[in-house]
Amino acid sequence: MSTRLHPRSLACSMALALAGFSATAAAAPQMQASVDMGAANASQSAHVTLVLKLRNRDALAQYIRDTVTPGSPHFQQFLSTRQFASQYGASATDIARVQAWLRQQGLASTVMANHLAIRTTGTLRQFETAFRTSIHDYASRSGGRSFRRPVAQPAFPADIANLIATTTGLDTQRTFQSHRIRTLPLSGQHTVLPMLRTAKTGNPTATGIPGSYTVGDVADFYHINPLYQHGITGKGSTVAIVTLSNFDPADATAYWNDIGLTTKPNRITQVHVDGGGAIDGGSGETALDVEQAGGLAPDANIVVYDAPNAGNGFIDAFAQAVSDNTADSISTSWGGPEIYNFAALNVNGASDTDTTDVGDLVAFDEVLMEAAAQGQSVFAASGDSGAYDTVRGLGFGGGPGQFNAPLTVDSPASDPYITAAGGTTVPYSFSVTGGPTATIAKESVWGWDYLETYLDANEPTDGGWHQYLYSVGGGGGVSVYWHTPFYQAFTQGIRRSQPKQTLVYNDPASGPYTYLKLPAHFRGRNVPDISLNADPQTGYIVVSSSDGGIISEGGTSFVAPQLNGISALLTQSSGHRVGFWNPQVYLLQNVFGYGAWSPFHAVRAGDNWFYEGKPHYTPGAGIGTLDVANLALFLKGGF
């Protein structure tokens, strides 16, 4: 059986081959998870984004490094969007060539200010003609959503093909997951233990109750209160939330008011990208992101970029937030398994045999490099499925349970130019009615196998618990696409990818089929970078009208916006943008380690179903949790 690759796919395949990937050829039609419903309505309109290639990528990478390296002549010399476009975006000549070709195809186009993307509008028939492909509708075999996608990768004329990195928008198949999860309905009392490291300060917004924590408790856990006591509240800074659902801003206002927190009035601005996201099941995600980031930085401005959860929505929302360059820091709590970018496309209903569509990874990376050069700190949730991101990361046409669970990481958190937010469990006690009280005595890597152990011992008949437990925990592991970045090169505890990891599709009719054999011992980017409390059992209250009012949740969805809010405090404290966090925090940890004056605390206990807590970096919790007041002192002094 042979595999036919399109021109762009061939380049991707070569890159993956160098990384050690083995991609299996296309499966028979009966093994598809979706049904080809035939040609899509060619008269319907579509919005497609052409992502252009960076100029001088190596020089850009060095410039980013210089902006966060004390002593460099470019230290803290962040670029404006215009400067970035001039130095690293596509040239005016190249943009003119692409736009001239688009006009010939009858397609309207608009160039983004960063010169990294061209947005186009037209009918599907026009795009089919221009991109030399057909576009079909598909329906999920599991009875879920329907979508459209090209049957072959878009192809471009030779004179512009080398200018285009990827396209997004014609394919509406893939959706992303929000990384929040509800508290497990354990019966019995939860009793909080005294927190380690920091004493209660009397902050009126803190509850001290696991499952009902607020931003005031976060301030207690991670030594943020000294900043508040010195008037550091995020004043003068702006945070952005990139999300795939719209929400009611009144939810955030109600949350802040209900916990007795005074915030800056009229602080929320909404930007609806590509028509905006819907008010739907993900709206609670947007609400909690705004509540957490804006609660920790009560005087910061907030810009919410929401887009549809399909096609080019996620990329476009991120690109807009970065190109606008209004926000000093940005967070997202959405993502999906990194390895699904490499899976054979016919798993999801396409007849094409391209096995290496890494377009999303490439597009995110370019946008994130721009953010770093502009001094924008960016954070992404690492996921809530522990070391096995595919278990709860399904975003394709197939239904749950159709794929196995290799060790995986979440994207875009796995990108080397973003700070990946991991999860812990803070100390607490719990019990089940009739059972003994169990205690998490110190902050631990979050993984619900600790509940599995307890329930196996005290509820031996199971009672259905296991389906809720595996593999819930803080996302973490090793990328099998991105190489180990320079800032992790000398960090103790950095891991390589594990051997014998495969992506298998379990077809109900035909049995298992292996689509990918993942590279073993690959020197990949390790995830996460920083962790904070994320266990729903020690989780937070959220006000979400779309979810019925006040609910209790957890997940790394909370950590990303919390780091966003913390970054806003650090921006005010230091008097300038913090910039790309990772090189700075890894250097601090490598030099100063863990101690009374360190900005970090190692997470030495627990696991995320594979990676255990350690007295150094671990893919369970990164370099550890924060002492924000100490971090502020280091950053303010330029180390």
Automatic annotation (TrEMBL):
InterPro entries: Peptidase_S8/S53_dom_sf, S53_propep, Sedolisin_dom, Tripeptidyl-peptidase_I. It comes from the Bacteria. GO terms for molecular function: metal ion binding; serine-type endopeptidase activity; tripeptidyl-peptidase activity. Its cofactor is Ca(2+). GO terms for biological process: proteolysis. Keywords: Calcium, Hydrolase, Metal-binding, Protease, Serine protease, Signal, Zymogen. Residues 212-638 form the Peptidase S53 domain. The active site is at E285, D289, S557. The keyword Hydrolase applies. Residues 1-27 form the signal peptide. PANTHER family: PROTEASE S8 TRIPEPTIDYL PEPTIDASE I CLN2 (PTHR14218), TRIPEPTIDYL-PEPTIDASE 1 (PTHR14218:SF15). This is Pro-kumamolisin, activation domain. The lineage of its organism: Bacteria, Pseudomonadati, Pseudomonadota, Gammaproteobacteria, Lysobacterales.
